[in-house]
Design brief:
Layout: H1 2-22, E1 32-36, H2 37-42, E2 57-63, E3 69-78, E4 87-97, E5 106-111, E6 119-129, E7 135-142, E8 149-156, E9 162-164, E10 173-179, E11 185-190, E12 200-205, E13 209-212, E14 220-222, E15 225-227, E16 229-234, E17 240-246, E18 251-257, E19 265-267, E20 272-281, E21 287-293, E22 298-304, E23 307-310, E24 321-326, E25 332-336, E26 339-344, E27 347-350, E28 362-370, E29 376-386, E30 392-404, H3 409-430
Antiparallel strand pairs: 1-30, 2-3, 3-4, 4-5, 6-7, 7-8, 8-9, 10-11, 11-12, 12-13, 14-15, 16-17, 17-18, 18-19, 20-21, 21-22, 22-23, 24-25, 25-26, 26-27, 28-29, 29-30
Helix pairs in contact: 1-3
Length: 431
């Protein structure tokens, strides 16, 4: 019996090797099942006395490994009464849970937030989420009825509680861009609420509060030249990426900040041009973003071990692309020529071509986040028709999530192994 099992598992392993060897190098990694998160957001508001359903727009910006998605919901809400409605444009933090799970997706309007004694400006959104469903982003308010908007980075929770992130000393406006599993937030702050101010990258944790990232450019505007920095992503080891004005290059350059090293702040390269922007980082320290080529065309990049890799673009070299996020398996997502893409096996794929019949009537334009299960989120537009030249007529903007649905390799290989075992068993019986 042991010999039979051994031969069966040899057949199993052989089948695995054959499949791996014969899989085309440029094969699309998966097909995906689409979830229209925008239609689910609409379902929160079923009457015109609360919400005008003809005016919704929403975007998804982040997803964790539990399938919880965060972003923004924009629409017209009634802040008056049923009999005397008063419609107001609002943007709310929104959360979708159980995306890709066996049950129904749940949609949660987390809200707008604000502080006692202030005047709300009806805007809040979440840019990132961690494994415990803590979200970061910002909300806005006015200190007086006639004052200017103040933008406040915050940590939001699924129970609609929140904690305002303190600004670095001397700063008053801030945005949280990403939060890791330890609750560390990165983003950017400005010193005034005016449009003439420039951003400065910050990092925040509960022990040390907010501080400017050492080495990052402190935002200034001198003779109409903007010098700035923004932190855009952080991994679970505390490595940060973003972009900062490099005086040597006289342009924005992507950076890595590693507080565990003697020289924590360092610039990374470009794809031949003068600018680069870091937008995502995984737990191995691989950075993605975008850079201009020597020709001036913008392409997404992957930075690992000191090497910059040009991801290319959908439609060829002359087109543009931007990488937004990377998971721990090295799968990258972003946008190229106004089409959402996924990059795997050293090739960029138009996500619209991988989502099957359920995609009818929906154009995915930007993939903004990916988790370690390969689930992708972003936003796109409803397709309402075609122009005479064949170009699409696009309607309202909606958030989406897609869940990979590969031919199950484990099941197939297990079946192959069983077939081999059955064949060997038949031969042994016949003998």
């Amino acid at each position: 019996m042991k010999s039979f099992l051994k031969r069966g598992f040899v057949a199993f392993a052989f089948a695995a090797l054959v499949l791996a060897a014969n899989r085309p190098a440029n094969a699309a990694p998966y097909s995906y099942t689409l979830t229209d998160l925008g239609s689910l957001s609409r379902a929160l508001y079923t009457t015109d006395t609360v919400y005008k359903p003809q005016m919704p727009e929403n975007r998804a910006f982040g997803i964790n490994d539990s399938g919880t998605v965060v972003g923004e919901l924009k629409g017209q809400f009634n802040i008056g009464t049923v009999t005397t409605p008063s419609w107001k444009s609002q943007t709310h933090v929104i959360m979708w849970t159980n995306v890709g799970g066996s049950g129904q997706v749940q949609t949660n309007d987390i809200g707008m937030f604000g502080s006692a004694g202030t005047y709300p400006t009806y805007k809040a959104l979440a840019n990132g989420i961690n494994s415990t469903n803590q979200m970061t982003g910002f909300y806005t308010y006015k200190a007086s009825s006639s004052g200017g908007n103040v933008q406040v980075a915050s940590i939001f929770n699924s129970d609609k509680s929140y904690a305002t992130i303190s600004n670095p000393a001397g700063y008053m406006m801030s945005v949280g861009n990403a939060i890791n599993n330890n609750g560390v937030v990165v983003g950017y702050s400005t010193k005034t609420s005016g449009t003439s101010d420039a951003a400065t990258a910050f990092i925040y944790d509960q022990t040390n509060g907010s501080r400017v990232i050492p080495g990052a450019t402190v935002g200034t505007v001198v003779n109409n030249v903007v010098q700035q920095s923004k932190a855009t992503a952080i991994n679970n080891s505390g490595l940060v990426t973003g972009f900062s004005y490099s005086s040597a290059a006289a342009n924005n350059r992507a950076f890595i900040y590693d507080p565990s090293t003697a020289t924590p702040f360092s610039y990374i390269g470009t794809l031949g041009g003068s600018t680069s922007y870091g937008t995502g980082i995984n737990d191995s320290g691989a950075v993605v973003g975008y850079s201009n080529l020597l020709s001036g065309v913008q392409h997404g990049f992957l930075y690992t071990n000191g090497n910059m890799t040009d991801l290319g673009a959908l439609g060829g070299v002359g087109n543009t692309s931007q990488a937004n996020a990377i998971n721990n398996k090295g799968v990258i997502v972003g946008t190229s020529n106004n089409l959402a893409f996924v990059y795997e096996n050293n090739q960029m794929f138009d996500l619209n071509t991988l989502i099957g019949p359920a995609s009818s009537g929906f154009l995915l334009t930007n993939a903004t986040g990916i988790n370690n299960l390969g689930q992708i989120v972003g936003y796109g537009n409803l397709i309402t028709g075609k122009n005479t030249d064949g170009s699409l007529i696009l309607g309202e903007e909606r958030a989406f999530a897609v869940t990979p649905t590969p031919i199950p390799p484990a099941v197939f290989l297990f079946g192959s192994g069983l077939s081999g075992m059955f064949f060997l068993r038949r031969r042994k019986t016949a003998a």
